[in-house]
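lol ok so funny story. i was supposed to be doing the assay writeup but got distracted and ended up predicting the structure for this chain instead. priorities right. anyway since i did it might as well share w the group, maybe its usefull for someone
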Amino acid sequence: MSSPRLDETGRTYRGAGPRQRQEDRRARLVDAAVEVFGTSGYRSATVEKICATAGLTKRYFYESFDDSEALLLAAYASVTDRLRDNVLRGAGGGGADLDARVRGALTAFFRSVADDPRIPRIAFQEVLGVGPEVDIAYRRVTRSFVDAVLVVIGPAVDRTAFPEFHLRTLATGLVGAVLMIAQQWVLSENPQPIETVIASAHTILSAVLGELGPT
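and the output, tada:
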């Protein structure tokens, strides 16, 4: 038998309390933002369009977000978290072999970009030039991918032989190279096959990592 309808005093409604329902509505808005920002763009989107896509009213938008920029930040976090998680899972399949880990990470990264065009549009295009808060988030996400690179190469690199700042600088350069390759690839009118793009990125990473002596 269904639970009775109750008010917003903290009691449950159909098995979910007020906080859970709010979290569910927020998740629906973020999913809607990924769809709208990732297909038609952030600058052409409206709160009304986001709410219509989510199947919610504007009242519920402002329950979770102050404005569209706050929602863009949430959508950006959603797609980049997914992308980073895929990279780490791809690397994990390579075990302790560095080359296999790097190939796995690159394959997972570019497959994710190719399989869901909304991800690169939001991550590589829509967040650029929006404002200071989004710029801060962009730098924070970039640092998180640098951390992911260090996780990928960690099992094969003698971290005691190289200063942390040296490894982080190299990882930052690798992240920048891969992101630029991906950005130009998705924007190209005649994109190269994904296997070619992965191979090119792998060449760059292998050349740099070879200097660390792990391969």
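Residues 68-92 form the longest helix (25 residues). Residues 17-65 form a domain with the Arc Repressor Mutant, subunit A fold (CATH 1.10.10.60).
back to the writeup now i swear
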